[in-house]
């Protein structure tokens, strides 16, 4: 059902508007705010995120439909993504307060975070190929600046890889969009795309669909667009690393789901997504085995997690469980992954997993948050990722792709090694280089909040 009226359309996308206004306010306000008062812009960003969340909750009570002439979907999935992205970005800002407070680019960081978050939400709600392309760019371009802000050699390398990979996969994405527009007679809206492509040459439609999906894999951080993720996670500031491994992926995975669901049955786009999902979860796990740096390990971990998140898109249209499974998994992954990064942010000088030796005795609260986050990423009950993986596997089985559920279980068991390899030193006696320094206060709070949220969401979702 399409909604009409420019005024009602703007009201329907108020959560996105508030994020954009918050980004602009932080950007402009930063030019007139002394460095010692940049915390004011942090409050502006938080207010924008809270306002967006409130508007999203109100929007969930409205009937689902399409706005702006059928180019943007305002439904329960878009509403859920709005809330997940806003909550995740709030958690990112929380874990990054210690790192960003008084930084010369503090206000610019908040602006970039909100701009990229806006792009992620619009990507998830896009019901038109051209809107999806614009959202892809809006979510991508701020990341290049975020990764390079640390101004170190590793940050420069990460930023360069992110930029080059983004440019390459952006071209692939645009090429696919042009092909689909050409063979569909200029039809860009998802509502009419399936009908318009039914009589088009199957080879051209398949080529265009594959190119668009592969292009979106850059933002998802999965195979084959994953090469930048570990380097960016390792080289960027911890705030940027936490954000880029979480928020953009949410929008990209939902965008892939919507596209696959809109394509005609003459193209088996689900099989393409299934192959990419298996490749992502398998390669991510295999590469994570050899990692000793926590942030690089989490970078490869997020590649594997994208594979799990893509399973609902591999059975899109075949089971009613696919969409809720995807949304729940993305929410669970977001809070759990950010909890792990918050622990890393709280102890910035611990650059190896062996450096966490004795953490349980020195800082049991942080050790508990790390335990919950790592076991959560593994998929252990009662954490939310366990419920998410269970529902994702059930959706794959119910959608006639039981083999994907088997691959998920095998990869989950394989990931047990490197998650526990990080956590094992936490209980060993003795600290590295003497006593632990006092952990960063805001990052510690964010770690606890993320860990508690992961368990609570798991308990609620499990009960439902």
Task: Report what the structure shows.
The chain has 464 residues and is mainly α. It has a domain at 281-464. The protein has 20 helices and two strands. The chain has helices spanning 6-12, 14-30, 39-59, 76-100, 106-125, 129-148, 153-183, 190-197, 202-220, 228-235, 238-244, 247-262, 269-288, 294-314, 322-346, 359-362, 364-378, 384-398, 402-423, 441-463; strands spanning 65-67, 72-74. A two-stranded antiparallel sheet has the order 1-2. A hairpin with a 4-residue loop joins strand 1 and strand 2. Helix 4 (76-100) packs antiparallel against helix 11 (238-244). The longest helix is centred in the middle third of the chain and has 31 residues, at 153-183. It is globular, with a radius of gyration of 21 Å. The chain starts with 5 loop residues before the first helix and ends with a helix. The relative contact order is 0.10.
Largest sheet features? 2 strands, antiparallel
If you average the pLDDT, what whole number results? Answer: 94
Provide the structure class. mainly alpha
- Distance separating the two termini: 29 Å
- Topology as H/E string? HHHEEHHHHHHHHHHHHHHHHH
Radius of gyration: 21 Å
Outline the fold blueprint.
Elements: H1 6-12, H2 14-30, H3 39-59, E1 65-67, E2 72-74, H4 76-100, H5 106-125, H6 129-148, H7 153-183, H8 190-197, H9 202-220, H10 228-235, H11 238-244, H12 247-262, H13 269-288, H14 294-314, H15 322-346, H16 359-362, H17 364-378, H18 384-398, H19 402-423, H20 441-463
Antiparallel strand pairs: 1-2
Helix pairs in contact: 2-3, 2-5, 3-4, 3-5, 4-5, 4-11, 4-12, 4-15, 4-20, 5-6, 5-12, 6-7, 7-9, 7-10, 9-12, 10-11, 10-14, 11-15, 12-14, 12-15, 13-14, 13-19, 14-15, 14-18, 14-19, 15-17, 15-18, 15-20, 17-19, 17-20, 18-19, 18-20
């Amino acid at each position: 059902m399409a909604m009409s009226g420019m005024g009602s359309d703007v009201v329907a996308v108020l959560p996105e508007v508030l994020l954009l206004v918050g980004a602009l306010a932080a950007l402009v306000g930063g030019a007139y705010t002394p460095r010692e008062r940049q915390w004011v812009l942090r409050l502006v960003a938080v207010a924008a995120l809270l306002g967006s969340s409130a508007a999203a909750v109100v929007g969930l009570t409205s009937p689902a439909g399409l706005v702006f002439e059928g180019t943007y979907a305002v439904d329960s999935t878009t509403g859920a993504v709005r809330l997940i992205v806003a909550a995740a970005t709030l958690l990112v800002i929380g874990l990054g307060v210690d790192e960003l407070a008084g930084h010369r680019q503090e206000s610019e960081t908040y602006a970039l975070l909100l701009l990229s978050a806006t792009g992620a939400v619009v990507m998830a709600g896009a019901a038109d190929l051209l809107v999806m392309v614009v959202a892809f760019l809006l979510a991508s371009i701020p990341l290049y600046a975020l990764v390079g802000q640390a101004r170190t050699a590793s940050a420069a390398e990460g930023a360069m890889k992110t930029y080059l990979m983004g440019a390459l996969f952006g071209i692939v994405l645009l090429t696919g969009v042009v092909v689909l527009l050409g063979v569909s007679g200029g039809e860009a809206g998802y509502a009419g795309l399936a009908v318009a492509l039914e009589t088009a040459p199957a080879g051209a439609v398949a080529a265009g669909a594959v190119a668009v999906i592969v292009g979106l894999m850059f933002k998802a951080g999965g195979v084959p667009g994953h090469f930048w993720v570990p380097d960016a996670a390792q080289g960027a500031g911890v705030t940027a690393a936490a954000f880029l491994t979480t928020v953009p992926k949410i929008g990209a995975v939902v965008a892939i789901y919507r596209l696959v669901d809109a394509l005609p049955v003459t193209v088996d786009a689900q099989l393409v997504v299934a192959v990419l999902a298996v490749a992502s979860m398998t390669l991510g796990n295999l590469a994570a085995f050899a990692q000793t740096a926590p942030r690089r390990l989490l970078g490869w971990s997020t590649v594997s997690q994208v594979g799990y998140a893509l399973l609902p898109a591999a059975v899109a249209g075949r089971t009613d469980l696919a969409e809720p499974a995807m949304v729940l998994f993305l929410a669970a992954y977001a809070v759990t992954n950010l909890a792990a990064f918050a622990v890393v942010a709280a102890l910035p000088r611990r650059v190896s997993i062996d450096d966490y030796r004795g953490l349980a005795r020195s800082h049991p609260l942080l050790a508990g948050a790390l335990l919950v986050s790592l076991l959560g990423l593994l998929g252990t009950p009662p954490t939310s990722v366990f419920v998410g993986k269970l529902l994702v596997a059930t959706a794959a089985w119910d959608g006639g792709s039981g083999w994907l559920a088997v691959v998920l279980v095998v990869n989950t068991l394989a990931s047990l090694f490197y998650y526990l390899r990080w956590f094992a030193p936490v209980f060993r006696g003795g600290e590295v280089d003497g006593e632990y320094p006092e952990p960063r206060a805001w990052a510690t709070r964010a770690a606890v909040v993320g860990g508690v949220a992961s368990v609570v969401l798991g308990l609620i979702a499990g009960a439902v």
